[in-house]
Amino acid sequence: MRKNSTKGLTALFMATVTACSLLCGCGSANGNGLTEKYAKEVSELTIPDNVKIIGFGEATHGNADFQELKTEIFRNLVEQDKVRAFALEGPFGDYLIVDDYINGGETTIDEAVEALCFRIYKTETSKELLEWMKDYNAKASDADKLHFYGFDMQNYEALIAYIDDFASTYAFAGAPETKDLARIFEDDSLSFDERKKMAADYKEAAEDARSGYLSAGADEIEAEIFVHAAVVLEQAINLSEVYSSNNGIASFTTRDKFMAENVEWISNLEKMRGGNARNAIFITGHCGHIAKVPQSSFYPSNMGGDIKEVFGDDYFVISSDYYKTDCNMPGKSGRADHKFKSNDPLAKEANNYDNKRYILQFSDIDGSDPLNGELSHLKMGTLGESYSIIMRVSTASSRITVDAQKAFDAVVFVYSAKPIKLLEK
By C-alpha distance, which of 58, 62, 124 is closest to 337? Predict the structure, then answer.
């Protein structure tokens, strides 16, 4: 990968400093070019043929660079005939509306963007991705069409609306009733045990009714999505109970366990759809969920770890990091842009490369290379969807130390990440 040219005196000075540090045996990744031998363009990333799940982890939710990267990587994978499914850390039911849009349904682009649900996704980059997916599908065969999924279970309204619509479209005598499903979440007179039993009973009834819906005209894919919607409904009320306990660790691990189950289901559904390019799916979310190991010792498990338990080496993870960021985050006074530095020396080196970014694919790195030592305790940035003034006096919530080669297969390093620009409401 070509480095940017610099002024002659600066280049000579830096070369001298680098040579001296190497000769003295005290070099660090901070400016000595440890990455130069292996840095490459994002388009040069290679995915092994055995891979079934390709994950992209965002270091933050509030930077445009990472939204642009996941779009770029997904489009590259589609063009390479690696994937036909885009799955996002967002609600399962709402994203069925998005899938309807990209597959030529009655949903409009504005409705599809609104169905992305979480404010962080309502950007021009997301809108352009959906429009590109729709344009692609307009020219593709049924076996080659793209699909959009959510693997989260936090919202229930669109989920119940989908279940109601399916049940009425393929109604038959003896089909399970849907009229009380909203009560599971809205009737405060019900205990959690009663709510969970209602959800479990409906899930079982939906599975038992599968053959009836098929006889009423639903196809196998439609019936499978409907049955899984009932599964997600049960996940949602179970997660609500955990959330009510105000146990942050249990909330994180429970949600991630359910998300991993949904990712596995998406993988299986894509195989049902058929086609040579459906051997793998593309998933994306925050690095803390996507990584193969938990990013904090507080959490005994995470989604990526649960996925790895099932898929092993067939799970391939691309992470991301910044050296400095102006990140859009919500706080007490609303959303605003906040500046942070990660202290990641490898991200700092991105300043030396074209477009101020590069990717390291760990399988490219020689086993004896000093870069491995740096990667084993890499200081990375991490920002979630919440800002507090405490983050100004403590870096504990914005920096982590990671054994990158255990957590990821590749990392895209960005020197300076710009904030997302949200679409007008």
Answer: 62
306 alpha carbon, distance to own chain's centre:
15
Running DSSP on this structure, what letter comes out for residue 419? B
Q: What is the pLDDT of residue 34?
A: 86
pLDDT of residue 132: 98
Name the DSSP class of 278.
G
Tokens of 13: 């000075």
CA dist 152 and 235 (Å) reads: 9
Give CA separation, 129 vs 82, 93, 251, 312, in Å: 17, 19, 31, 30
Contact 353, 347 (CB under 8 A): no
For the chain of 425 residues, list the mean pLDDT of each consecutive stretch of 10.
42 33 33 82 97 98 97 97 97 98 98 96 97 98 95 96 98 96 98 98 98 98 98 98 96 98 98 87 97 92 98 98 97 94 95 96 97 96 93 90 97 98 88
The DSSP secondary structure of 349-408, one letter per residue, reads: GGGGBGGGEEEEEGGGS-TT-THHHHHTTEEEE---S---GGGGT--TTTEEEE-HHHH-
For residue 1, the model assigns a pLDDT of 55
Q: What is the pLDDT of residue 424?
A: 84
Task: Please answer whether residues 242 and 257 qualify as being in contact, where contact means their C-beta atoms are separated by less than 8 angstroms.
Answer: no
d(CA 305, CA 320): 18
Nearest 5°: the CA angle 260, 284, 51 is 70
* Residue boundaries of the structural domains of the chain: 42-154+248-417
pLDDT at 393 (0 to 100): 87
Spatial contact of 239 and 154, defined as CB atoms under 8 Å apart = yes
Q: Which stretches does DSSP call E strand in 103-186?
A: 147-152
Rounded Cα gap, residues 292 and 302, in angstroms: 8
| Residue 379 token pair | 């200081």
Structure confidence at residue 52 (pLDDT): 97
Q: Tokens in use for 123?
A: 């950007």
CA distance 219 to 221: 6
Contact indicator for 90, 118 with CB cutoff of 8 Å: yes
The two tokens of residue 33 are: 């070019």
Two tokens, residue 35 = 């990455």
Task: Give the span between the Cα atoms of 390 and 379, in whole angstroms.
Answer: 20
| Alpha carbons 10 and 8: distance in angstroms, whole number | 6
Instruction: Give, as one character, the DSSP assignment of residue 140.
Output: S
pTM of the model: 0.91
Q: Phi, psi (5° rounding) for residue 57?
A: -105, 130
